[in-house]
Amino acid sequence: MSLKNTKQNEATETKNPPVGKVRVGLITASIWENKTEKGTFHNVTFERRYKDGDQWKSSHSYNADDLLALAKAADLAHTKIVEARNGDGE
Questions:
Q1: What distance in Å separates the CA atoms of residue 59 and residue 2, rounded to the nearest whole number?
Q2: What CA dihedral angle connects 34, 20, 45 and 72, to 10 degrees?
Q3: For the segment 15-38, what is each residue's pLDDT rounded down to a tens digit?
Q4: Other residues' Cβ atoms within 10 Å of the Cβ of residue 16
Q5: CB-based contact 68:77 (threshold 8 Å)
Q6: Of 29, 44, 62, 69, whose CB has the highest number of CB atoms within 10 Å?
Q7: pLDDT tens readout for residues 38-86
Q8: Element (H, E) at 23
Q9: β-pair partners for 22
Q10: How many whole angstroms separate alpha carbon 9 and alpha carbon 4?
C-alpha cells in the first residue's frame, strides 16, 4: 500500500465518521463501514491517547503495557462488527 493511498483513506474516513467506537482505557478502536457493489465491509483503526503536559495527543504506536487493552479493544470491535452483520447491532 502506498502512502498516497493511506492519505486518501484517512481523508475519506475524516469525511464519514466511524460507525462505532470502542474504548478500553486509553486505547480507542474506530469502526469504519465501506459500502461497495460487492457488499459492506468494515475496517478498524486503533489509537492510543496520551497527555503531553496539558494537551491530549494520539499515537498509533503501542508499548508492551498497551497490548492487552489493544487486544480487548480489537475483540470488542470484532463483536460489534459481527453483531452488525447479523442484524443484532444497536
A1: 20
A2: -130
A3: 889 999 999 999 999 999 999 999
A4: 10
A5: no
A6: 29
A7: 999 999 999 999 999 999 999 999 999 999 999 999 999 999 999 998 9
A8: strand 20-24
A9: 29
A10: 9
What is the three-class DSSP state of 33? strand
Q: Of 23, 3, 5, 1, whose CA–CA distance to 13 is shortest? A: 5
Q: What is the three-class DSSP state of 90?
A: coil
Cite the DSSP H helix spans in the chain: 3-15, 67-85
- With contact defined as beta carbons under 8 Å apart, do 49 and 56 qualify? yes
pTM of the full predicted structure? 0.78
For 23-51, letters b (16+ CB in 10 Å) and e give ebeebbbbbbeeeeeeeeebebebbbeee
Q: Which three cell numbers stand for residue 38?
A: 460487492
What's the CA dihedral at 5, 1, 26, 78 to 10 degrees?
A: 100
- Cell readout for 64 is 508492551
Residue with cell 447479523: 86
